[in-house]
């Protein structure tokens, strides 16, 4: 509780005490004789002023600034009205409860804000830098890229960098929601915002603080609330008209019926005052963005960054989801799966292939060398000659070796054995004769099939996979994962047109998401309704282009974000309906003379508080 | 140029919305955002007039919500 709130609490206590005393003495008959007189008015004015002087002061000040329809003014008019019609105790009570409600509302909002910002508490406060041979704590902002910093056990990593010395396990939970620590040793990159485990690390920084992962994430989350959801915009617009309309209604209610029906003004003024009390739209204006903020907070807690409330809203309507294959559904690591020599042993073929690929930096070459596992003796190989789009021709032990795809074999008139299995097939020929083939395949990510099943379960209707790979390889992966639609052998540019085609086929309200690893998918990520990037922490292109970033590249999280967004939207809708419903009802009852000031105060601050508490549920989204 | 400011004692969500609208109407302001939840204000305005614009922003905020202070 802040100082201001504590002071308010004391004032409420005093006013409540005075007010209760007055009510008791009035009921005990102690105030008989002064009823309906200026004396009684004077007595009730004391607690009223104790509790409400600041409201009156603010109302007067704001009117002088030209701000008429603020809640202070409305409360002042409402309570003055009550005094005017002789309902002194009502006037004090309304003001008292209004202040109690405001206090509680302020407290609840402060608490919610606190719990959200605690969760975002990934900002490092200092960096240990060596200055003149001594370790000093400096502001991470002041550390230049390329500096040497020391991260002690248990400290938060202040800047992105590369480990120069030491070994440790790093807790990335704050960024990725992943609870298993990640190992970091010499040469590994470390990411700011994570917490160092038990080892001391010497790190060379690679980025300035403003460009570091933690600063970018914080900025994203903070900016997320500025990209407003449709529902938020609706509420802001609504609020702009709501207050003047209700106030106008109050004026009409106070003036017209007595003129037409005749009779006392008092009753109608009392009813008009009820209108004024309900006329503040605060419950809606707070609880809707708070709900979205909570949803975004819940998502970031499990390692999903959502760049705006509008995207959270869109995810709830997602019906089609398009995946890029490599790196998204598959690991993007190529592994030798089968070695099929035409003659001789597998080992001999692998050795020949590894030697032939000795100079190549293609990922496939790397996987063959890895499978071979031994140092390449470069004395055994000669000058490589690359045949574009086909493979390599290179002398191995002085005799010509060919390594590449089917086209290469056909061109060189090698009598080869074609292979139809899924994956990439590398054919090898030696001394003009077919030596065998090696099957290399990218492996499906662990849990990818489960992830697709989960998505289907939460209501995604269609899963599509796009890939540049051969049809056979793509079909095999699609079968394994339960993908509905496959488009294979696409060039990078084709992906955009395929996504556009799918967008055109969609129903009006349905949304399409594209999931990619971000590196060369940026145009597609932007084109889709929702671009989901496998953020592989630190990949700038991904974070930049996408609307939703999965910090740990885990496709399983997609189902979770759908759940979070649905829950958030439900809560927001509940709040809108509840607040409007209660306000509408009390307005109606007030106009008919059934509701009194007490109900009106509840419809104002009571509803706000309940809506805020409800909005906070969005923050507590379940895991998985 | 985009700049962020912290706000103190921004007590009501409706006022934040009003402040935002009022700031957006100032000449030279490209975009403005007042976040009630983050108690922060982001202003995107022309570089060369930024200081003058900020003076106007302060005046506008004092008019809409006098309790709220902008921390520089």
Major protein interface: A-B, 28 and 21 residues
Task: Strand order, main sheet of chain B: write it out.
Answer: 2-3-1-4
- Structural class of chain A, by secondary structure, is alpha+beta
Helix content of chain A: 40-55%
The biggest beta sheet of chain B reads: 4 strands, antiparallel
Q: What is the tally of beta strands of chain B?
A: 4
| Total number of helices of chain B | 2
What class, by secondary structure content of chain B? alpha+beta
Q: For the largest sheet of chain A, list the strands in their spatial order.
A: 10-22-21-20-11-18-19
**N-to-C SSE series of chain B?**
EHEEHE
Q: Unreliable stretches of chain A, pLDDT < 50, 5 or more residues?
A: none
Taken from the alpha-carbon principal axes, the silhouette of chain B is: globular
Concise overview:
The complex is a heterodimer of chains A (624) and B (72). Chain A has 624 residues and is α+β, with helices and mostly antiparallel strands.
């Amino acid at each position: 509780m802040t100082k201001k709130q504590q002071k308010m609490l004391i004032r409420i206590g005093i006013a409540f005490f005075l007010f209760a005393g007055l009510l008791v003495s009035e009921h005990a008959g102690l105030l008989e004789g002064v009823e309906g007189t200026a004396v009684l008015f004077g007595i009730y004015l004391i607690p009223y002023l104790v509790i409400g002087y600041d409201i009156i002061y603010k109302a007067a000040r704001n009117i002088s600034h030209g701000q008429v329809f603020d809640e202070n003014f409305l409360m002042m008019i409402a309570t003055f009205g009550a005094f005017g019609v002789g309902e002194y105790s009502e006037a004090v009570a309304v003001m008292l409860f209004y202040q109690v409600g405001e206090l509680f509302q302020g407290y609840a909002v402060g608490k919610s804000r606190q719990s959200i910002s605690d969760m975002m508490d990934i900002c490092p406060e200092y960096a240990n830098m060596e200055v003149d041979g001594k370790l000093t704590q400096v502001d991470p902002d002041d550390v230049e890229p390329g500096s040497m910093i020391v991260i002690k056990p248990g400290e938060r990593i202040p800047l992105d960098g590369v480990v120069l010395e030491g070994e440790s396990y790093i807790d990335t939970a704050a960024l990725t929601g992943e609870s298993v620590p990640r190992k970091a040793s010499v040469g590994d990159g470390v990411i700011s915002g994570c917490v160092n485990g038990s080892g001391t690390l010497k790190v060379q920084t690679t980025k300035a603080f403003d460009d570091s992962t933690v600063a970018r994430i914080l900025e994203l989350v903070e900016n997320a609330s500025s990209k407003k959801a449709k529902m938020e915009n609706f509420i802001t617009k609504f609020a702009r008209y709501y207050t003047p309309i209700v106030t106008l209604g109050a004026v009409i209610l106070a003036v017209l019926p007595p003129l037409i029906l005749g009779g006392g003004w008092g009753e109608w003024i009392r009813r008009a005052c009820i209108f004024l009390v309900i006329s503040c739209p605060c419950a809606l204006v707070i609880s809707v963005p708070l709900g979205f903020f909570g949803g975004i907070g819940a998502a970031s807690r499990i390692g999903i960054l959502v760049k705006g409330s509008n995207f959270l809203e869109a995810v709830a309507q997602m019906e089609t989801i398009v995946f890029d294959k490599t790196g998204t559904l598959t690991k993007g690591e190529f592994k030798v799966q089968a070695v099929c020599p035409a003659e001789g042993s597998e080992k001999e073929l692998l050795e020949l292939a590894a030697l032939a690929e000795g100079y190549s930096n293609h990922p496939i070459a790397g996987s063959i060398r890895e499978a071979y596992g031994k140092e390449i003796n470069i004395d055994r190989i000669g000058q490589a000659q690359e045949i574009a789009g086909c493979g390599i021709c290179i002398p191995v032990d002085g005799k010509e070796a060919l390594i590449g795809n089917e086209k290469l074999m056909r061109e060189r008139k090698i009598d080869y054995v074609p292979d139809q299995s899924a994956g990439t097939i590398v054919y090898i020929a030696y001394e003009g004769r077919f030596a065998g083939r090696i099957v290399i395949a990218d492996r499906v990510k662990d849990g990818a099939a489960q992830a697709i099943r989960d998505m289907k379960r939460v209501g995604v209707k269609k899963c599509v996979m796009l890939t540049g790979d051969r049809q056979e390889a793509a079909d095999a992966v699609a079968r394994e994962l339960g993908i509905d639609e496959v488009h294979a052998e696409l060039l990078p540019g084709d992906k955009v047109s395929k996504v556009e085609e799918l967008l055109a086929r969609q129903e009006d309200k349905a949304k399409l998401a594209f999931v990619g690893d971000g590196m060369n998918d940026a145009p597609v990520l932007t084109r889709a309704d929702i671009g989901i990037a496998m953020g592989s922490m630190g990949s700038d292109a991904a974070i930049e282009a996408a609307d939703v970033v999965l910090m740990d590249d885990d496709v399983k999280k997609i189902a979770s974000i759908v759940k979070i967004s649905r829950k958030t939207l439900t809560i927001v809708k509940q709040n809108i309906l509840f607040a409007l419903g209660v306000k509408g009802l009390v307005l109606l009852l007030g106009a008919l003379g059934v509701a009194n000031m007490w109900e009106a105060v509840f419809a104002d601050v009571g509803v706000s508080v309940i809506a805020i508490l409800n909005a906070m549920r969005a923050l507590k989204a379940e895991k998985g | 140029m985009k700049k962020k400011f912290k706000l103190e004692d921004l007590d009501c969500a409706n006022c934040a919305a009003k402040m935002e609208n009022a700031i957006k109407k100032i000449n030279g302001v490209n975009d403005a955002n007042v976040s009630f939840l983050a108690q922060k204000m982001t202003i995107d305005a022309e570089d060369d007039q930024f200081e003058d614009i900020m003076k106007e922003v302060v005046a506008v905020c004092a008019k809409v919500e006098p309790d709220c202070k902008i921390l520089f």
